[in-house]
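Onboarding guide, step 5: your first structure request.
Type a short instruction followed by the sequence, for example:

Predict the 3D structure of this protein.
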Amino acid sequence: MKGLVFGGPGQKSWTDVPDPGIIDPRDAVIRVDTVTICGTDLHILGGDVPEVESGRVLGHEAVGTVTEVGDGVTGLAPGDRVLASCISGCGVCRYCRQGSYGQCRGGGGWILGHLVDGVQAEYARLPFADLSTYKLPDSVSDEAAVLLADILPTSYEVGVLNGAVRPGDTVVVVGAGPIGLAAVTTARLFSPAHIVAVDKAESRLQAAKVFGADVTVQADGDPLEVVRSLTGGLGADVVMEAVGTPATFELCTALVRPGGRVANIGVHGKPATLHLEELWIKNVTITTGLVDTFSTPRLLDMLVAGQLDTGHMITHRFPLDAIMDAYDVFSRPAQTGALKVALSRE
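The system replies with structure tokens like these:
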């Protein structure tokens, strides 16, 4: 079969790789039907995730059809259509028992496309398949479901829930890429007074309005003045960092009010300055996190019920074997207008 192989920073190829098979009784193998590219994949290619070894098949967001299951899998059978979660959980370690699957110490966590081969391939092995997949109803399309593999639970858990968004809050999302847009969408579930989106690209600010932001501002404008004008000079109740650069993190800490919360979602490959000389007296809470995906079943229920509108997130579509073109488009959003790309079997 073919897969998208990481060859070291800046290097990737769509090439022949071994077919996956059952290694552990709790494994399943899927035929990949729809897959997408994550900003984290770009961070890997940029050298920001040094744990990823050369030769690794990338990808951690897919919908597929089960082709084989191990003897220890009880909830799946060949032919089942499933969402493959970005997080794998052993189910028995201390962290899994409290729902913190992202911190699994039993061989799980974020491993797909990171520590084991991922899902940007024609077939993929899914460890801990009973806990790491979700059967999909016929009413949910592959494209809608694949957004629940990572970006929606990540934004909801690491951004909205960690940031403790409450009714009437002023919420700022710095970065209006896919993660930021998903943060805007899920923040609206809590009825904030204002959602402000900050980004460099005008196309992404326009997208943020579609997804529910009522105020948008260019990053090189004056976000601080805009936020202060909305809040009587105080600053935002919740600020979410959805880019992963030192400059955006520092902007978030400048935008938050005394007693407010900064929720970092972005993947950082470089150190960021923490201005404790200014923040220590302001009672500011800063959270970080890797998604646990404990919210995926609830988000899937909301998707089925029509309470989550993800229809505008996929902007570009490709056949699976055009993944090199898809990476090119996804990596140049300012020029291409790309949000999420979907690659599917023809």
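Each response can be followed by summary notes, for example: Residues 151-161 form the longest helix (11 residues).
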